[in-house]
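thread: overnight batch results

M.L. [08:02]
morning all. the overnight job finished for the chain we discussed friday. pasting input first so we're all looking at the same thing
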Amino acid sequence: MSYLRYVKVIGTMHVSPKSRDDVISTILNERPHAVAVELDRARFLAMEYGKEMSFEEALRLGRRGVINYALAKVEEKLGEEFGMKPGEEMKAAISAAQALGVPLYLIDEDINLILLKIAAAPVREKLLMALEALAVFLPLKPGEEMPDPMSEYRTMMLQFKRRYPYLYHVLVEERNEVMARNLIQIVRGLKQRGIKRPKVIAVVGLGHKPGIERILDRIRE
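M.L. [08:03]
and the structure it wrote out:
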């Protein structure tokens, strides 16, 4: 049997209010033995204490800090467009796990390692990403509407993979492997505690859902 029978993966858009509502209702209705979120310890603590990095702090951290700051600002701008701050669906998952009194697991790769990999990206990919990131801050033209990311994510992911093959590999494929391995360890740990049929809900970005599910389905007990 594959590990997918134990894990329900919820794919979310980090700036979508609907994602937040879906996370809350699914966790409360399913009542899992554990909840896992696409966070590492550093991002979890930053979210819990509401700490935002200033540009001066980013400069002191060097290239990795500047990259982290730029990505955070892009997500913040998108959150304004869609009516929700980045990470609200993760906060909702954390709150729902606390309400049920079940363990919460942080399954994503360490942010410092991720930033190192981003910094090592080919120059062409970094320049293209910088230009596209700047476009996020341009106002919409009259009559132009922001596309619905929930309905267009497949196209968006294919475009990202084509434009940024290196970044796609390190930001999507490698993290899928990390998160899937961590989910397998969670299931095994629950079984060692005597839970014969563990139920785990994993809250991850929509682009990670298919890859994580394929890995979980491929690996057998």
